[in-house]
Structures are given as structure tokens and as C-alpha cells.
Amino acid sequence: MNDDVDFSGQLCLWYRGEVVVDIAAGALSLDSLTGVFSVSKALSALVIARLVDSGQLTLDARVSMYWPEFAASEKEAITVRQLLAHQAGLVAIDGVVALDLFLDCSVGGAALARQFPLWRPGTAFGYHGLTIGVLMEELVRRITGQYLQEIYERDIRSPRGVDAYLGLPPGLDARYVPTDDAILSSTQPGDTLRRPPLDGVTTSVFGNLDCGMTNATDSAFTNNVRTRRVGPAAFGGVASARGLAALYADALESSPTPVASANTLARMAQQHSWGTDRVLHATRAYGLVYMLPHPEMAFGSPYAFGHDGAGGALVFADPRSQISFAYIPHPMQFPGGVDARAIVLAQLAQQCAA
Amino acid sequence: MNDDVDFSGQLCLWYRGEVVVDIAAGALSLDSLTGVFSVSKALSALVIARLVDSGQLTLDARVSMYWPEFAASEKEAITVRQLLAHQAGLVAIDGVVALDLFLDCSVGGAALARQFPLWRPGTAFGYHGLTIGVLMEELVRRITGQYLQEIYERDIRSPRGVDAYLGLPPGLDARYVPTDDAILSSTQPGDTLRRPPLDGVTTSVFGNLDCGMTNATDSAFTNNVRTRRVGPAAFGGVASARGLAALYADALESSPTPVASANTLARMAQQHSWGTDRVLHATRAYGLVYMLPHPEMAFGSPYAFGHDGAGGALVFADPRSQISFAYIPHPMQFPGGVDARAIVLAQLAQQCAA
Amino acid sequence: MNDDVDFSGQLCLWYRGEVVVDIAAGALSLDSLTGVFSVSKALSALVIARLVDSGQLTLDARVSMYWPEFAASEKEAITVRQLLAHQAGLVAIDGVVALDLFLDCSVGGAALARQFPLWRPGTAFGYHGLTIGVLMEELVRRITGQYLQEIYERDIRSPRGVDAYLGLPPGLDARYVPTDDAILSSTQPGDTLRRPPLDGVTTSVFGNLDCGMTNATDSAFTNNVRTRRVGPAAFGGVASARGLAALYADALESSPTPVASANTLARMAQQHSWGTDRVLHATRAYGLVYMLPHPEMAFGSPYAFGHDGAGGALVFADPRSQISFAYIPHPMQFPGGVDARAIVLAQLAQQCAA
User: Is the Cβ pair A200, B320 closer than 8 Å?
Assistant: First the structure.
């Protein structure tokens, strides 16, 4: 571990059930934990997958079947499939958008249930960078009576003992390496924020939410202990690459302890939204919750599934090549989202596997 | 007023119910009226909004419910929503396309009712630059027994006394400043005409229609007195920026005399079509009738709605910033449609309001 | 005929029922036959059109109505229309992809019936370069009990005596000029293969299929006598430009011996898929089976329909201009698909007709 370098990172790679790469450099050691922003969605997606497996959640059902208030503002016909494929048009929330909306899904869920969609649901897709977390959380809560984070911790993370948290316990704060959120306060911040200036969607999506403060109390992200403890499903994850790769090794059918059925994961990895993302104004491919490879983000076969995060982190599993890959750079890379290094590393990993 | 300048224009801006900018320069005085081409669609849209408000028009109903002949040529399932969102594929008319088709909607409507759509309805969208006017007019006529222009004049324009006409009375011809249609006769004309050469759609959309003649008798547009008197819903409007801004100030909920309900206007301002327009071959966002902002035409918040016109005019209301904006340049700017100046002016207005 | 030139080709043009251009140069004489790759789809499409005409095939029916096994892997709701518009997501086949899958549609059809779609059917489109052939063949076989190639030969080709074969008889091998498949073995091969490197779809679509061998035994294409005899519907056609143009002259309503009704062909020529093709990652427009003109491939009016092929060949009919056009260059042009020369020639033909 060395703080003097310009670039730090963790990289962990599994191939056919074995760890084949596990390295760290610079400010991050192998055991360091840090905020992984939207990579969190790949943790949350596994809770969804298990509800599908158990028959508690039906992808083609209407959201309002599980969550009656969601039918307001002409949203009664939106299906779970549309919701999870970033097609519902609920990217912005009217009124004051404060962090509390994202720390308790009963609060944020109520706001989203009232919300009139920005676009006619089903006619298009765009990254629900912040809101898809609340939507998943409230859907899970309505179905199970439990918080997504509780289920994740009890049924997924804890049995595996992996370093990939939605809600970091206080006892692990010592291993937490703060993210460099400063970059998020620039005019062209990263990940979910990345889009041309003067596009009205930016302001609407983030409202009054403070996305840029590095101040530990005010930040919306995991440097803020409130966020870190809760672990919002869209952006509140704290992990190491080692933890992420171990978790996603269990997203492959060959795992002796699969986290969900290969059938369900393949259905969630199926392309549902592809083309120009109307929030990010860039090419994206989404399955259900998952971010998928496409020519401008070619990290794997068409069967690979995972998620990137502001800061440049990336996790995915690829059933074709049988690899599980996790990468976390530090500090986060401008302009956020999966960075060129992550893609190159993923492609090298794919070539080694082939 | 000064005819010696290269550039003339009118600009009028309302903020929270008050006029805050009202200027004119060059060949246009504050009281000048001129042809606003597709900005006319923003006038016509208000008639549609009122029919929705009164319950006479249901957006999710099939067009053929109101207009049985429209069901011909596999169009029975097209909804009003698809029709108004430029998704119906009725951009071209087979056979001779003459001005008469656009001066009497019973004539043009009969042709469009027979027409087989260029694309499978609902699979895509493209600017129905000329035909959406006839389609709105005939829909209104079938529902109400009256012409769209009559309703507009009686219920919308006249009570407000605003200078924004669909059908200019002879007594106001003295205030009419001719548009410079010459530019429309070039090989790359403006607005609805703007698209790459050799694309077969161009010829099909316009057929034999003479779009380029500056001759007052032959032009399809408002320099032709026949067109000016009728005021075709898609392109026949005559207005001043002052008139347009006053009208659209009444499209904001805060107005004491709203032209339609905020709820209906928000539904018409919801994005329905977004991405590459298959007629214009450029990025566009449409609600129902309305042209909406997008990153390459960033005139307002995602809640703003209005329309541009060949020649570079632009009108919109923005419920977020509470402004109403209207701009008319003269002569029209190549290649037509909202010009860079209009966007810059709109952005300045938005910044002042914020 | 002259083998010393760099470029060879055939060009044949019909206008209003008469041959107006019929030339050949270089290695191709007027009577030469060669492999036309995906232009084959334009031959196969005519069999589909005749089944629609006869009422044996309904475009809005589900594929599984005719082919029950196709309902597997969540494909029960896919319509014939979606299948033929490249929207079904069946671009890749899991497992070993060998030539035999394409030489007998009962084998390839069984694999495609099992296949889980790469994307959610109906949400997008992408060129089914190889598989649309098997899908058409098996659909035809289920409906008629006969092979598409048999019907094509008996009902379409033979009565006209045209040089456009799906399955070349041994007696005509002497006229066959081998294609230069070597170009297909490069890293950026042509036509269906054309897309950015490292995009996982490439590998998946082609699997183990040997597309590049010039060895007459191993090639997947018509230099391989096995392929040439069968004439796979997607890529196995052998023809001359003279034969293709004569055939497509009968795809115009004005023909005294039309190959199918103008009504059906217009419905198949209607745009169903338009925009960025998610397999080719380039702009494309498709009707049902047919490739259609768009601004980057502007070969005709919006009513024109036909197909290009790896190697640069192109055939189309244009009901607007009443021309039938066929062009075959030799050797094939990198990177395949319709080449710039074909478009320029088509545009010249259109101008002469106008």
C-alpha cells in the first residue's frame, strides 16, 4: 500500500471457480473497502433475482399489483419488467429532492408513487441512476415486508462472508477508504450525472440533492456515515474488488453455491433496452437492473451482466467465458462510469479465459 | 423599424405573469405580423388540449372511433396518442400533393384516410410536418362539427385579443410582413424540408407541392393570401412574438386565465417520441403535437413545451421556470427550424428566471 | 470478358417493363453466375410474399401457431411480422454453429426453436444475417410441407427461366465464377460480419462457422458445392445481374407476370425497423425480410425494396420510379454490404427514370 502514486486500484478475477487474479495497488490494499456507487445495483439485482426464483416476483406483472399506490399519475400499466429495464420514465422527482428520499424507501417510494413520468412509459429508456434503487427497495418491501438491504445481508452477503455491503457495519469503518467525491461537484460530474450542460434533465434528476460535497456530513454518498449505514440500493454499496468478484463468481451456473438460478439471471441479462439512453445521451444496453456490454463498452460476451459505477468501478459475470470480474479504481475517474482501463482489463481477462 | 439591417426580429418574454422583455428590431416592429410556419402547431395544440379537457377527445382512443374512414389501409388500431406523437407514419400522401389538400381538411383528410402508412404505425416516429395539421383539423371536425380554426379563433384567440392567428382577417393584411420563402426553393430548404439530399422521403412528403415560390399566388405558405386566410393548422399561422408570448403565458398554471388545464398540458408535454426522427434524420423529442427540448435543442426544462418553425421562430412555455417565450427572426434562417440564436436567447431567459 | 482488370461487374436495369441497361465487364460476362450472399434474401422473400397472397401465412399470427416448438424459451408471443422484421433477437445460436445448421432447416430450425433470444423480442431490431434464412425456411416447411427452395424453383424461378438460383443445378457449375471469400477471413469481414471488433455479438452470431475459407470444401458459402446445391435462403443464392433484374421486374405491379401481388409487396416494403441496427451497429431500415433505403443507403424512393449482399451486390424494385435494378461487383468489396458504387449507380438509374 502506497499513498504516493497517482493511481490506485483493486482488481480481482475468477475463472471457472477459482481466483486467478487478486491484486491491489496504491491507496487501496486488498482489504480496503470503498464506495462503489452504482456498482451497488449489481448487489441489489441479486435480491430481485432471488424473488423471481422463489416466485414472489413476476417480471411481467404490473408494479401496481404489488404496490397499489404506484398506479397514480397514469402508471397503472407499468410492468416490473419495464421498471427494471429503465423504461418507466421515473428519473426525476418533483419538488425538493433531499437525501432522506433515498435513505428510507417508504419516503422515497411515496414520492415516486405520486410522480408523473417524464416520458410515456414503455416508449423509451433512460438510466434511472438514483431512483431505480428506491423503486427496487419499495417493491421488495411491499412483497416481503423486509428491506432489500436486510435480505441482501441475511441471504446473500453474510452466508458468503464477502466484502460487498449494502449498509456497512460500524465495526468495518476502519477499513473504509473515502471516495473522492470532489469530482462530483464539478460542472460535469460522473456516472449518473454525466450529460451535456444545459439539458434540463440534469437539474430535474438531482434537484436539490447535494451530490458534490466531500464533507462527510453533507455528501449524498458513502462518505456520509448515514448513507454508508443504510446502503441505498442504487448507490450506497461499500466493497472491495475481492468481495465483488467472489459474489459474482456465485452468479455463474458453475458455482457450487449459486446466488440465484442461471435461468433467472439469463433472463435478467437479456437485452431489454439498447441504444441512445435518453438520460445519459450516450449508448447503453440494459437488461433488468443490469448494465450490459455493447460496442462502446465491450467488457464481455452478449451474455455478460453486471454494473459500472461513478468512479470507474465495474463488476460482471460472463457465463460464456466463465469469468467473474471486479475492478475498483481510486480516486474516481472523470467523468465517471466504467473507465477505459476497466474495459481494457476486462478484455484482457476475456482473452486469457478464451 | 429599420429596413437596412441584415437581421430583424421580435422577442417577447413573460415571467410569472408579467411581460419582462418585449422588443423588435429591423424590418419587424412590435406590431408586425408575419408567417410563423410550424409554430402554428403550438396554436393548434391548444384546441386539442381543450377537447381533452372537455372530455370530447380521449388520447388513448383509436382515431377511427372519431373518424371511421381513417381505419382504411391497416390504420384501424392507430390511437390519437400515436397520431399526435408523430408515430402514425402518415408523412407522405400518394399522388399529386397540391395546396388544396391543406386548405380544406375534408379534402386532405380523405386523402390521409386512404393512405397506407410509410412505416408500421407505432414502431417509430418522424415529423409529420405538413400532415399533422390536416390530421388534427379533421379529427376536430369529426368530433365537434367545426373547423379547428373556428374554435381557435372563438375560444382561444379572440377572448385574449392576442396577435396569433390561424386565418388572418383581411383587415390585418396591412400589418403582414412577407416571409422570405425564397430560401425554401433551394435544394436544402428549411424546417420540415431539412434533410439529406437523395432521401426519397423528401419528394414523397412534398410531392408536387410548391414550397418555394415567393410568388404570392403560388406559394404554399402565408405569403399566399389563400393560405393566409385559412391558416392551415400545421403551417398557416400569422403572429407577432408579443402575441405568441401572451398566448403561451396562458399555458402556464399560474395564469389567471389559463387556456387549458395544467394537467392536460403536462400530459401533452410528456415525452412520447425521442431520438432520431426518421423524417428529419436528426434528434428530436415530441410530446403530443408539441416539440420538446432535448440536448441538441435545449431551450428549457424537461417540462417545457412549444414548437419551432421554418424560419427560426420559437414559442414555448416552461412550467418549471414560469416563463413564456416567443421569438421570430426575419428573414428566415437557413436551414430553418429553431435557430442557434433562439436557443441562446431561451437559455438566457431561463437563467434570468432562475 | 477480361481477367486483367481490377474490377469486374454486372449491371442490369429494367424500366417500365423493358431492359434498358445490360452490361458486364472484367471477369464477369453477361452469362456468368456467382454467389450473391445476402441478396439471396430477396429471392426468399418472394416465396414469403406468395404465401401471404395465398392466405397460407398471416403476418400478424404468432410463429408458434405454424411451428409449435418455436414457443420454447419465452418465444410464444413472437409474431411472423416481428420475425421477418429482424426483431426476434434470434441472431445467435448457442453451442457449436456448424454449416449443417444452415443446409437443412429441420436441423437449424430445431436449434433456433430452443434458442433463448438475445434481446427481449419486440424491443429492438438487428440484422439476422444468417438465421433469418433458417427461420423463413422452417416456417415455409411447416406451412407447406415443402422446402422454400423447392417452391422458389418451381413457382418463381423456373417459369421465368431467370438466372437467379437458390440451389444451383450441377449442369450450371461451368458458368459459376467463384467469389473471393478470402476477404471474409480478415478480422473485419463483410456484410453480416461487419461490426466493431471485440463486440461479443460477432462471435456469438458466427460461433464455429467457418466463414472465411476459400477452400471449396470448407467455405460456408457458395464456393462450397454443398452450399451451392442447397442454396440456403439467407446466403446461398447464385445469380447474374440479368437474372436478378428480370426477377425483380416482376415484383412491380406493371409487370404482365407479377411474382406476387403489389398489395403484399407494399406491405412487406413498409418500414418496420429503422435506426441503429443492434447487430451491425449502423443505420438500417428493414421491412419484412427486405432491406430498405435510408439516408445512408439512398438507393430509391421510400417505396423501394430489395437486399444487398456481402460483396457489394444489390437488387431492388422501386414502384415509384418503375425500375428494377441489379448489380454484382467482383471481387467482393471490403467491407461488404452494398458498396458506394451500387448506390451511385442506383441513383443514376433513378435520375434517368425520373
Answer: yes
